[in-house]
Structure formats: C-alpha cells, structure tokens
Amino acid sequence: VQVTGRQLCLSSGDVLLASWSGPAEVGAVGIRPEHLVPADKADAPFSGPVTHIEHLGEYSLAYVQLADDLDLTVKLSEKEAGQLDDVLYLNALPDKLYMFDKAGIALSAR
Length: 110
Description:
Strand order of the largest sheet: 5-9-6-7-8
Shape: elongated
Distance between the termini: 18 Å
Order of helices and strands: EEEEEEEEHEEE
Oligomer: single chain
Number of strands: 11
C-alpha cells in the first residue's frame, strides 16, 4: 500500500481510496469479507479467480486469488459467489477500510 498524492493505492497501482487525508505512510490495509462488493471490471482494484467456496446457507464465503499472490475472503450471496475458477471483480467500501502504520498501529483517515 502506498500514498500517491491524495490517493491510497495498492502496490499494483490500482486506487483503493481516491481521497486519503491520513498519514503519508500506510503499512497495511484491512478489509473485512462483508466490506468487499462486486464491481465492474473497470472499477475493480481487486480481481482474481475463485479458488474455494464455502456455502453457509444464507451466504457464501468465496476465496479469491489476487495477482500479487494474496488471497481475499469475500462474503457474498450464493448467486454472487459463482463457481470455482470464475473471475470476481471486487471493490472495497471506502468507509469500511482499516489502515495501519508500519508498526501495526491503527490509523484514522479523518
């Protein structure tokens, strides 16, 4: 994660948060599975194939392999979870991101 101007960007260069007003150095970003949402391909900072799906009745947990060898767990409806090897395009709810400094201390975007 890096701060570029006023944007918070992933190492891939994709914009995670368009208007970041917090500290210039961010060590990590935390995103809960229920705070990731399906997105159009052009607007999705996260994408990758589904490697595993846990069907839990009311919802499913889909595990998505990102290009940079990281995994995301996403809470979706049964329909949204798709099938193994489907590519999911995801965005994070901007007000639900958790930022940490390089020492692991929580940061505030306000």
